[in-house]
Amino acid sequence: MPHRIVRYVMHGALLILACLAPMSLDRAAAAEPAVVKSTSPDSLPRLGTFREDITPPLGSPLCAGSVKPLVGVDDPLWAKGIVLDDGQHRYVLCALDWCEVRNLSHDQMRTKLAAAAGTEPRYVAVQCLHQHNAPIVDSAAQHLLDAHPNPPALCDVPWFDSMLDRLAARVREATVRLEPFDAISTGTAKVERIASSRRLAKPGEAMRVRFSSTTDKSLQEWPEGLIDPLLRTVTFSRGEKPLVRLHYYASHPQTYYGDGRACTDFPGMARERLEREDRAFQVYFTGCGGNVAAGKYNDGTPLARVQLADRMYQAMQASIAASRPQPLAPRWQWRTAELRMKPRNDGGNYPEQNRATVENGEADARARLGAALSLAYRQRAEQPIEVSSLEIGNVWLVHLPGEPFVEYQLDAQKLRPDDFVCVAGYGDGGPGYLCLERSYAEGGYEPTASLVVPESEKEMRRAISQLLGIE
Q: To which H or E segment does residue 315 belong?
């Protein structure tokens, strides 16, 4: 199909600001879920799977760095996940083929899915894969814009309401068909020629950025840089039959975008191919890929997308082949931690200036959207972001918000060197990039687009330690 490589000059804050999805939210607070009594702790743990098409209607805006709306669907966007029941609690892990879910929208999704599963919101993790031909959802920004003249298109309230109801129905159905499993296994495989660092610097030179695609030979020839080269897989089985496989890998998941065509991009393509062939339910989570992308190996062509998808598929196969059984602990531990990250008051984040921009019905649409997103996080920052982890024996599944740098994932694994630690990023997208404190002095794109102060690194490390049971 015809397309053009998106130029990344506008990839900065404007990308996030323009990437808005149609959405709606129940304005009233959801009622507390009726928590069901689980099976006896002595019985086998159980699981159920769910899937729902969450592709927005034609004409909806996408996160594409432009105002071009959805004009076609190359492949549908999915919400995929599992309900786990250990005999005492139910846990919901959900991965969305969306760019981001932010602030109040993320809170509501967790609350509604918890009610559908008969559990509490604290036991629900909702993560995005962060594809860019896909929506961003932020109800708080919608509210801010709707209060003033000529608001830019942000929310399709009836559509999001019906989508969330359908997704909750799928979760509810999963609880009806929970089936026991008696084995868990883990595997890893090196992913060849996908991930590369986005932040490139030489002593005495300014930070350069290698985004998700480039035809600049000098950027392509730069070394891969700091990445996590391994894809990790956790498999839940009954006897010899695999029921569910969870895959984790840290990289921005896009090849090209901005053509108005919904696509799960190379991770989703590999995931769905594997599910058709393996017959086990496959879920993919994007790890801490905030400063990692495929730019070294991606020139933004359709052929590159196919090649990247094939390499991801091969890594998933290799990780499955390398899987080894792990002890299935009779007791599991779900942990939560609160993240309080202060909003910035510099760059494009001055609240008075942003309020004036939101209120100005004649202002540029992108500027108004960006101002609304900044203000929405400022409102959210008054309440902490809840992050979580699930410990099953020596397997740890960690769920983080925003676009965290890969260093957080690598350091989390070092905290539990004898265990199997999987990290999913892109939970509540409200804070944007979660950089290291030193990144702000180093410069480059990510710290300019982050909505939180440099000291947030300390908060992140404290929360990660708590999630891994290390005080």
A: helix 302-321
3-state secondary structure of 359: helix
Nearest to 187 by CA among 227, 249, 231, 229: 231
**Can you give the pTM of this predicted structure?**
0.91
- Per-residue pLDDT of 268-316, as tens digits, reads 999 999 999 999 999 999 999 999 999 999 999 999 999 999 999 999 9
- Rounded distance, CA 317 to CA 322, Å? 9
Distance separating alpha carbons of residues 463 and 386, to the nearest angstrom: 10
CB 160 within 8 A of CB 24: yes
* Amino acid residing at 403: E
Task: Write out the two tokens for 147.
Answer: 């209060």
Per-residue burial over 212-244, b = 16 or more CB atoms within 10 Å of its CB, e = otherwise: bbbeeeebeebeebebbebbbbbbbbeeeebbb
The amino acid at 175:
T
Cα(449)–Cα(430) distance, integer angstroms:
12
DSSP class per residue in 252-278: ---S---SSEE--HHHHHHHHHHHHHH
Tell me which DSSP letter residue 10 carries.
Answer: G
The residue type of 201 is A
Q: Are 344 and 456 spatial neighbours (Cβ–Cβ below 8 Å)? A: no
Amino acid letter, 151:
P
- Angle, vertex CA 271, rays to CA 116 and CA 132, nearest 5: 80
Is the separation of the CB atoms in 467 and 389 below 8 Å?
yes
Give 69's strand partners: 61
Contact 272, 264 (CB under 8 A): yes
**Residue 108 to residues 32, 103, 116, 278, 458, Cα–Cα distance (Å):** 12, 9, 12, 34, 27
In the numeric block, the tokens 């959900």 are attached to 94
Q: How many CB atoms lie within 10 A of CB 314?
A: 15
Alpha carbon distance 228, 230 (integer Å): 6
CA dist 396 and 335 (Å) reads 10
